[in-house]
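Complex 246.
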Amino acid sequence: MQATIATSAVSRRGTGAKRVVEEVPPSALPPLAENKTPRHTTRRPDPPTTLRTVAEIAVLISGTGSNLRRILEYQHSHDTAYHVSVVIADRTAPGLQWASQYGVPSIVIPWSGDRAAFTTEICDRIDDAGCDWVVLAGFMRILSPEAIDRFPSRIINIHPSLLPAFPGAHAVDAALAAGVDHTGVTIHFVVEAVDAGPIVAQREVPILPGDTPDSLHARIQVQEHDLYPTIVDALVAGRLTGEVQT
Ligand code: GRF
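Predicted structure with 5-O-phosphono-beta-D-ribofuranosylamine bound:
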């Protein structure tokens, strides 16, 4: 088995390189202790040093944080191109438990009623954490245009409908009330207009006879949890093609 050492350095936003993880070949490891005899006397050529970048992301929540939980679980079980470096909430949200369980710093910035000041505070904390990407995961506040200026094409949101159908805060109820036979999940870039940014990924969810808002939302969330971590990972790694993913 090859031994590796990971070294990391965090660069500020805008320099191109994110957190660079360098995998150092075994030859760079300290020499064996004197009482250990190397088993191989023929030296193998060193493998090439590989570099990969890891994007630091901020996740913003207001509620139970089940999507945050999945994003963290996925990070801890895959070789992701993202790393959650801060969680920010506008209230003492139950979902903050997932940040603490995974050892991620969290910040509560209570909604003050002043959108501009609230947005500046959030953007400053995201900058402090060295994040390039902002992932909204059930964040129930609308940020001012300053956020889009400071993180252009770097803020994404997940919405429980197939946008442009059923935008707004009551998308699940609206789909049920409309009597349609399916709804779904959309991941999209955040722009000034609410729930109107370019779509990155969508997945359909059927509406079943007897569905209630809770039963339908639960099935939608199963798809959200499957889709969001993989799309975040693909986006920050630059693996998305520009076509909507399903
Ligand atoms: C999700 O259904 C998402 O689509 C919507 O808010 C909900 C957040 O759920 N924007 P959770 O807090 O991640 O459990």
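The radius of gyration is 21 Å.
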